[in-house]
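Render this sequence as a predicted structure.
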Amino acid sequence: MLSKPSADSQESLLLNLKHRRIVEKIARKYTRGTSVIWEDALQTAFIKVLEAIKAGRFRHGGTEEFYRWATVVARYEIIDFVRREIRRQCSSLDQAVPGTDLSMLETIPDKLNLFDAVEHADFTLHVIEVINTLDKCYSERGYLHIWQGQIQGKKQIEIAQEMGVTQPEVSKRRKELTMLVAYELGLLPIKKGKAKSEQVRKREKNQW
């Protein structure tokens, strides 16, 4: 049976480069697409793990089990930290979401049934990042304009008039956008998402 590391040795184990890189990767993953600094999330995670060590929270197992436990504690603290920071930054629904001139309230569509399980603020910031990227890749499709019009409550016919296209075309592009965003967020099967992406690329190429 492996002996449990002492509190002092547990703290020294946190200095292990491999472990630090794992936690750093987690911090980068959960802060990507937000305005939260990953280094801050990383530091907060290590402080949380140290507090847990001093409180005697790690009770059973050897070094391998300790690293597994410490990684889990760090991961949950990083997630909580990012959520706290996003809530703080978007504490008022009238406050503009970072990177846009829209308020938090304006960025929440009436129907988010595909993403019910996702944190509102975190979801919104990730969607904004994805849509901005797609809009740059497929500039002729006007994805950003369509999305902004939708969340502002505009009818498709209004958006169509603004873009100089037909209402059915706006509807088609909106469906394209929904599928592409879902694919980029990992919510669609790879083959289906890639197929839609290829269709859009071919259409974009033909327009040129």
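Summary. The two ends are 68 Å apart (CA to CA). DSSP finds nine helices and no strands in the chain.
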